[in-house]
Amino acid sequence: MSDEPEAKKKKKSQTEDEAPLPKGWEKRMSRSSDEPYYFNMFTGKSQWDRPTKAAMSADSQSNEPKEVQCSHILVKHKGSRRPASWRSDDITRSKEEAIEILKGYQKELDEASDMPKKFQDIASKYSDCSSAKRGGDLGPFRRGQMQKPFEDASFSLPVGQLSDIIDTDSGVHVILRTK
Questions:
Q1: Where is the PpiC domain (predicted)?
Q2: Of 166, 168, 141, nearest to 155 (Cα)?
Q3: What is the pTM of this model?
Q4: What is the pLDDT of residues 146-161, one digit of tens each?
Q5: Which of 48, 52, 50, 55 is nearest to 14 (CA)?
Q6: Other beta carbons less than 10 A from residue 86's beta carbon
Q7: How far is CA 46 from the centre of its chain?
Q8: Maximum CA pair distance of the chain?
Q9: Which of 7, 42, 62, 83 could make a disulfide contact with 57, Cβ separation 3.0–4.6 Å?
Q10: Contacts of 77 by beta carbon, 8 Å cutoff, 6+ apart
């Protein structure tokens, strides 16, 4: 029996180890097995097989957009982070009352022939957010810019779709994804 195939395999593996890694990868050593593994610096994930392509960020691997644009109607309550708004200096309604108010707005929106226009009208008159002056429009935003429940709902909505009631530290919201 010849050791030639094993020697060739060993030589190939040494050559691979010396070649630079694709962009975004780091070679690390396992403490438990003393074997090399490869770390994707964008996603924080590891693998045993040597990578052949540049690492991609978690964002670029998903079909999720980098940013979205939404409008919202915010109804604050006495448990909100700041229970005051442009409409009222001291908001005393309960969270349950705020949710009931939003349910009423949802019913109006469901029955509207032009839902985006009706949404803008309601937000302009009744939203407790300063975005009311823009019909509730928050402009474009990326992940990490909004409170997590709001962000998750916004990024999961298809364009033109209305969310269910979303609860955040600011109050309760209905969100309309516009872009």
A1: 65-179
A2: 141
A3: 0.65
A4: 999 999 999 999 999 9
A5: 50
A6: 11
A7: 23
A8: 89
A9: 42
A10: 83, 91, 93, 94, 95, 97, 98, 171, 172
